[in-house]
Design goal:
Blueprint lengths: L1 H11 L6 E3 L7 H8 L7 H5 L7 E5 L11 E5 L2 E2 L1 E3 L2 H13 L6 E2 L2 E2 L12 H5 L6 H7 L23 H18 L5 H29 L10 H18 L15 H12 L9 H21 L15 H23 L3 H20 L29 H8 L1
Parallel strand pairs: 1-5
Antiparallel strand pairs: 2-3, 3-4, 6-7
Helix pairs in contact: 4-6, 4-7, 4-9, 7-8, 7-9, 8-9, 8-12, 12-13
Length: about 400
């Protein structure tokens, strides 16, 4: 609540706002909920007392065949507000989940084993996470070239080793979301279809993993990524959908430039001016002013060039419905191929599974201390958020 109030004060004093970039720390849970029209647990009186956030109203997405898509578009004075909840951080979290010693991810009938990627030239540092905060290591971990046997010109001739089929499927589910942000050449319709496909695949993967745990008598959550990481990835998909359906020619949106990476790069420029990375407020202000002065001098001599991309039009309501239906059935057919069931049977299970998630969302609550999503607590613990280290259970598993 305190972070929500502070951010609201900053936004209230801003003259123009288009995209809010942040990571997935616990104190940002309310911000994500406000930007996606999800439940916050705040009373109407508390909402009315918040600066800036009290002005937000919500626009629903068009109807589609999706069993669930629990997001709405935030509107401030008739303008849709965009957000990105740290796609690069989420990529690192996903890589951490795949490396976790306390779970073996199963995608349908395929279990994941990433050790075969070492034979296909994956760097050992990326495989074992030499630096858990390295964006380059996480990107290298999900590099598709480390999952195929040979480089070919025709995609139909790509050969994936049998031991890496499960890893490729998890890679696909994750990268459909992150590529919707980082790939500069996609159209809004392609970004939207990738994001919705990933959203559905995360749900289907969690649903089938629960069945696998039940059949094999395994601890709940031991065959899929942690639900917090999954929820953050699906929230990113929702934010991509908000942006792709609300673009305007007057305000172009380049998501690969609106992530946290440019902010961290800027902070790196400031930190490099000192021998220690622990800067005081005075150090930060001095370094920032010096860097801004250098930037102004450079731009006065070499004016910035206009980006070659033309502003893209927003996805219409009819296009959204078609894209959502196509993404749903693409994900269902993929999961059906991975489970040996018919797509209609997978859809029937998914509808029932989604109904249970809707009931759980009715009891959704965000706490100020110690966590994000309440609910069942018998799930296997793992990485909870960006700033937390792995709990002691991982050290115990590693020692054994």
């Amino acid at each position: 609540m305190h972070m929500l109030h502070l951010v609201g004060q900053v936004l209230q004093g801003a003259s123009q706002i288009r995209t809010i970039a942040f990571d997935n720390a616990t104190q940002h849970g309310l911000i994500k909920a406000m930007l996606l029209g999800q439940k916050t647990g705040l009373s109407p009186d508390e909402l009315r007392g918040l600066p800036f956030w009290s002005r937000i109203s919500y626009v629903p997405f068009p109807e589609s065949a999706l069993p669930r898509f629990p997001f709405n578009k935030p509107s401030v004075d008739g303008e849709i507000l965009f957000g990105l909840n740290g796609p690069a951080h989420l990529q690192k979290n996903m890589a951490g989940q795949c490396r976790s010693p306390s779970r073996t991810i199963a995608f349908g009938q395929f279990f994941t084993d990433f050790s075969g990627c070492l034979d296909l030239c994956m760097p050992p540092a990326a495989f074992q996470s030499y630096d858990g905060q390295s964006d380059a290591e996480a990107a290298s971990f999900f590099n598709a070239f480390h999952y195929v046997a040979d480089l070919v010109t025709d995609v139909r001739e790509v050969r994936v080793p049998w031991s890496l089929v499960g890893a490729v499927l998890v890679n696909l589910t994750s990268c459909l979301t992150t590529s919707s942000v980082f790939h500069p050449g996609l159209t809004p319709a392609q970004r939207l279809e990738n994001a919705i496909s990933s959203f559905v695949l995360f749900d289907l993967g969690a649903m089938e993993a629960e069945r696998t745990c039940t059949k094999r008598g395994l601890p709940k959550g031991s065959c899929w990524i942690h639900r917090t990481t999954q929820g953050n990835m699906q929230q990113l998909a929702g934010m991509i959908a908000v942006a792709c359906t609300s673009l305007s020619p007057q305000t172009p949106w380049f998501p690969w430039r609106s992530s946290e990476l440019p902010l961290e790069q800027w902070f790196g420029y400031l930190r490099n001016q000192f021998s220690s990375s622990q800067m005081t407020v005075r150090d930060f202000l001095h370094a920032s002013c010096r860097k801004m002065r250098q930037t102004c001098c450079r731009l006065s001599k070499d004016p910035p060039q206009r980006l070659p991309q033309e502003p893209a039009a927003a996805v219409t309501d009819a296009e959204f419905t078609d894209i959502a239906n196509r993404a749903l059935w693409s994900a269902l057919e993929l999961m059906a191929a991975c489970t040996g069931d018919a797509a209609e049977a997978v859809l029937k299970r998914y509808v029932a599974y989604s109904a249970g998630l809707v009931e759980l969302a009715e009891d959704f609550e965000i706490f100020e201390e110690g966590g994000a999503l309440t609910g069942e607590h018998d799930e296997l613990e793992d990485f909870m958020e960006d700033e937390d280290q792995a709990p002691l259970v991982h050290k115990a598993c590693a020692e054994v």
